[in-house]
């Protein structure tokens, strides 16, 4: 609440106003004694939107989901001590995902020696790889907040702003600080590195243009499409840029271990890979197979992202859109002809291929084939949706059989390899893209590990969430390892409750699918949903497709 005196306000009101002035309109969190007054002021005085998570871990993941779909900084707030320790997995996830996020965390009173919830929050947070800023004094709140936000944007990672509880009711004079400017763009490297890249591309006979998450803005997309057309190259994306080239005739889809059919054949026959905004990890490279015996040109904005996993023949630190346009100009000036890699035969093969071609039906009398069920139910969800994929043995099937309309509509939750992050991520994604249903695919173990409580958060906030739960009543990755060693897998098998009933008990809707005949009812439930919906797909742990 603001003080009647116009010259001063209470600190908790001032920081809420500073958040609004910095363009923050949505905050995810869990309140405690170090942040409850600030959250109240943000809602009541600044008309901000606050989404109350059930757990601090969920709040951070929701902010990451929001950042992923909007491209803006996601904001979460928690109190001190155990609230902060609950955020640590999410912070590591955000660091590895390179998502800008602000964590406003409280801290215990400096005057109270031996406080029950006191801990070294700076050490805990920085050990995750996240940034840390200490709010220096009540009078520096606007400056410190703006600086933390600028760091989150420029460093592409979560940054925590640590706020002692003692400040909440102190009086301060409000002073607005300008919002941080966007990072500069348009840089093109000159000299030998650029000339070498152009030479490699000019000599290529079977080149592929690859886009990663760092090249998904409209300018980069248009420039990469022009470059690919100019050199006669098919287009491909990393998983995190999934959907960027939807509708393009020579779109190969995801490049790497997930490639199928004629796309995989084209990728396997390439002699040059020109990557923009891509980290070139082991999965994008097809476990190394797709970077052998070919020249690699890699362009990223951040020099630290170049040649980090595999050596490259030409490394360009620059803006993907500007670099692609400069390459086209250089090729035009030298009158370099296009390669012959774009053929009518390749176009026809890509157009006629179905991801289900040649796949055996892995259903049983009491379970469904997860791949076929995901493919069919994915088509029942509106095409303009956000797709969120939790961690588990079903991941590869989801990535291959469930489409996202564009990269911002695909949310990647396993940057840290953790299961159970998907529901909270999906809540944040649904809040960030309210016109789109959030379609989450998760497993039974992940849902129980981290999704159960935040499904109710989606209910409480009236979010459009559809959960396709691949339920093999086990921790599937461990189950298959036992099977591969001819060992008893019972240690990985768990008798869960009925998930459809559980979803209804949490205030949502629930449907169970045991056979292909039940899929029609699930499709109807998707069409007629009135709130968060969970569809429990019963699967056999011994009849599941490989993870990748």
Short description:
This protein is α/β, with parallel strands linked by helices and 548 residues long. The chain folds into three domains: 164 residues, Thiamin diphosphate (ThDP)-binding fold, Pyr/PP domains (Rossmann fold); 161 residues, 3-Layer(aba) Sandwich (Rossmann fold); 169 residues, 3-Layer(aba) Sandwich (Rossmann fold).
Helix and strand arrangement:
Elements: E1 9-10, H1 11-21, E2 26-29, H2 36-44, E3 49-52, H3 56-70, E4 74-78, H4 82-85, H5 88-97, E5 101-107, H6 121-127, E6 131-134, H7 141-155, E7 158-164, E8 171-172, H8 192-203, E9 207-211, H9 218-231, E10 235-237, E11 251-254, H10 261-268, E12 272-276, E13 295-300, E14 314-317, H11 320-333, H12 344-352, H13 370-380, E15 386-389, H14 395-401, E16 410-412, H15 422-432, E17 438-443, H16 444-460, E18 465-471, H17 476-484, H18 499-505, E19 509-513, H19 519-528, E20 533-538
Parallel strand pairs: 2-3, 2-4, 4-5, 5-7, 6-7, 9-10, 9-12, 10-11, 12-13, 13-14, 15-16, 15-17, 17-18, 18-20, 19-20
Antiparallel strand pairs: 1-8
Helix pairs in contact: 1-2, 3-5, 3-15, 9-11, 13-19, 15-16
